[in-house]
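Troubleshooting log. The previous structure file for this entry was overwritten by mistake, so regenerating from the original sequence record. Sequence copied from the archived sheet and checked twice against the printout by T.R.
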Amino acid sequence: MNWITNVVRPKIRSILRRETPENLWIKCPDSGQLVFYKDVESNQFVIPGSNYHMRMGAVARLKSVFDNETWFDVALPEVAVDPLKFRDERKYVDRLKDARAKTGLNDSVKVGFGRLEGSPTVVVVQDFDFMGGSLGMAAGEAIIKGLELAVEKKSPCIVFAASGGARMQEGILSLMQLPRTTVAVQMLREARLPYIVVLTNPTTGGVTASYAMLGDVQIAEPGALIGFAGARVIEQTIREKLPEGFQRAEYLKDHGMVDMVVHRHQLRSTLARLCRLLMKTPAVENSGRNAAIAAAAPAS
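Regenerated output below.
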C-alpha cells in the first residue's frame, strides 16, 4: 500500500500534470483583475478593462512603432564592463549577466532605425527590466549613437524613456552620461532635426535631469510616474503633503511640464504626425515602403 501511495500515485500525477507558465496571467496593479497574458500582449500591454499601461520591453516597443514591425538594429559602441570593479551584495558583472539573460539585451538601451509611416526615423528605447533602465556608460553611448545617427540620416529621433536614474555601480562614470547626452541632444538641435521624448512609467532620477526633459515635444503615457526625486523625499524636505496625483503624467501636463498625454494605442499615429509636421514632409502611401526601408538602411 505504501509503495502505491508513495511511488505510483506521484508518478501518475507528474505525467498528467500540465506545466503552467509563470506569466500565463497578469494582475492589473490598478484594478487587481487577472487578465490572460496573451490578451494583454496583443493589446500593446494595456490592460483591456482598466486601460492601465504596463511596462513594455524594448523589442515590443520597437515593433509597435515601426512600419511592418521591421527595423534595423543599430550597432552600439562597446564600453568597459566593470570599470570600478564594483561589488555590494553581489558582483556587478554577475548582476549584468542576470539582466542580459532576463532581457536578451546587452544593456538597458536599444536603438533601431526604420520607417514610421514612411518617414525614416531613429528610435531609442530604454528597457526598465534591465537593471531598472539605469543609465550607465553603455546606455549613454547607445543614446549618443542614436542621436548621431539621426544627424547622419537627417531624420527625427524619438526616445522612449523608462529609468530609475543613474547606475550606482558605475559611480561618476554614470553621472557623466548626463552632460554627454545633453550635448548630443544639442547637436541634433543645431542640425534642426526633431527630437521627441516619450516619458513612460517610470522616468525618474538623473534621466529627467538630462535628455528625457529636453524634447522639442514632450509626450507621456497615461499614469506614468515622472520626476527627479521621490515623493517621500520631497515631502520630508518641504514638510508638506503633496497634492493628489503629484508626479503623474496628467498632473505634469496640467502644470506645463508635459505637452500631451497620449494613450498607447494612439501613440504611433501621433508620433508619425509630429514627425511629418516638424520635418515638413507629406505622408507616404503603404506601397513601396519595404523598398524605402531597405534604401534607408544605415551603413554597416
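Strands lie at 25-27, 34-36, 71-73, 109-116, 119-126, 157-163, 195-203, 217-220, 260-261. Archived copy saved in two places this time.
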